[in-house]
Amino acid sequence: MRLNFALTCAAALLGFGSEANADVYRDPDTGFTFSQYNALITTGTSAITFRIAIPSPVTPGQPYDAVVQVVAPVSAGWVGLAWGGSMTNNPLLVGWPNGASAVTSVRRATSHTAPAIYSGATAQVLSKGTKSNSTHWQYTAKCTGCTTFTTTGTTTKSLNPSGSNRLAFAYSKAKPSQPSSSSSPINVHDLFNYWDHDFSVAGNAQFQDLVDRNL
Q1: Residue by residue, what is the 3-state secondary structure of 142-209?
Q2: Cα–chain-centroid distance for residue 167?
Q3: According to the 3-state scheme, what is the secondary structure of 92-135?
Q4: Which residues of the chain have pLDDT under 70?
């Protein structure tokens, strides 16, 4: 109950409305239907919310874009979403606040070292779903190249648009040293965890129209 109350307060403060229903969130600002997961980052009620929207239908076996919406407390300096459920050998979408907007960067690590800029995927911030206030910041971005990627060697992984996919997140309390730059160095994460995210309820029939509307 305490967690639900805290998340409801965060939503109200950012003007999200109250359209969350179980693991589905219909965003009144952007129009996207998201599948969402709330990741606790403290033993209390502080959480980072991860929301994912995808096109519907998706051709089986073909790459597809995804829209990500992240809501984080202001105590989070940066937040990363690992599309393969690991800190290595998969795209890591990193985002952080920059004034009233946000900066995103796609990184990749092949070992447990600082992830480098990854050219195999791109992220585009959607301005209408990106905002901040005194308690939370939020970004919404389209990620291209994040749902199909090479892991090691020539092995390719594709995320299932009709089922569950293992994702992971990391976050740091320290802000990037160059917050206006997508290539800014980032500090080592303070917390890492993973979960299984349901993509089957993330479909949006008007996906590209919604992307265009929210640029």
Answers
A1: EEECCCEEECCCCCEEECCCCCEEEEEEEEECCCCCCCCCCCCCCCCCCEEEEEEEECCCCEECCHHH
A2: 10
A3: EEEEEEECCEEEEEEEECCCCCCCEECCCCEEEECHHHCEECCC
A4: 1-22, 43-44
First-to-last CA distance in the chain? 36
DSSP assignment, residue 91? -
Query: pTM of the predicted model, to two decimals?
Result: 0.89
Q: Are 55 and 64 in contact (CB under 8 A)?
A: yes
Cβ neighbour number for residue 18 with a 10 Å cutoff = 9
Q: What is the model's pLDDT at position 60? A: 80
Name residue 123's beta-bridge partners.
143
Q: Which two tokens stand for residue 12?
A: 């109200």
Strands 92-98, 66-73: pairing is unpaired
Residue type, 51: R
Identity of the residue numbered 167: L
Whether the CB-CB separation of 113 and 199 falls below 8 Å is answered with no
Quick check: 3 and 47 in contact, CB under 8 A? yes
